[in-house]
Amino acid sequence: MSANHRLAELLRVGTRQRLLGEATEAEQSLREAVAIVEEHFAEDAVKLAAALNSLGLVCKDLAKYDEARSLYERALAIVDTNSDANADDIATLYHNLGGIEHARRNYTEGEAFARTGIEIRKRLGSSAETALAADMVALAAILDGQQKFEEAEPLYLEALGVLERSPDSNAGEIAVALNDLGALYTQRGDSDRAEELLVRAVDIKSQTIGPRHPDVAVTLNNLAIVHKRRGEIARAKALYQDALGIFEEALGADHPKTLACRRNHDRCATELPDSQA
Known about the structure:
Elements: H1 3-19, H2 23-40, H3 45-61, H4 65-80, H5 87-103, H6 107-122, H7 129-145, H8 149-163, H9 171-187, H10 191-209, H11 214-229, H12 233-251, H13 256-266
Helix pairs in contact: 1-2, 2-3, 3-4, 4-5, 5-6, 5-7, 6-7, 7-8, 7-9, 8-9, 9-10, 9-11, 10-11, 11-12, 12-13
């Protein structure tokens, strides 16, 4: 098999593994892909940047945040200086950099990245409408983390309005928006609206990526928070147990999402606050 064919197969397999929640396997495939690009196609800037971005995504999933940021920054430096790169790729890298800082709760820096990505994407017009909606959800989540609820909520709602015009092709992004908006309503004390959105998010995620995916566990954890705040401790604890089992299986016992969910489970019958995974 030629290097080009091997690279294409590794990128295809690695991307699929990541989407299935098989982050460790995806990392192996994508590290090999990057190695092939660096050995055989180092002068192909677009190909190298794409491989670096793909590996960055799975490093983020595995909470290897420093490495993920380094990979994104390297990819951005490549596309910023290459005439063959397009604005959509640049916007995506700013989106991803914002996601890293959101995960690390570096909200101010994350917001700057997210806003830069949105400004770039807006210049692309209607051709980038769905990607722009996903950018808006990401920015809203960062604003939510800063408790800027009045600014975050309309962004979520506007993005959902765009995404739900094509629900079949945008199911994954819709589920993310529903989860994040549900978490916002939980923080504001609107448990009924929060539960409705989170249940929808679990249903969509379970159907599209499978019920044992760690992204499903994220929403189960958030749904458990709603039930705990209502005093429905048995239901909350069961949801935490379900989420914890998925996190441990998919991400391992020491991943930050696993640790956060375990803390929530262990605190379930106490007054200590819960946290999103």
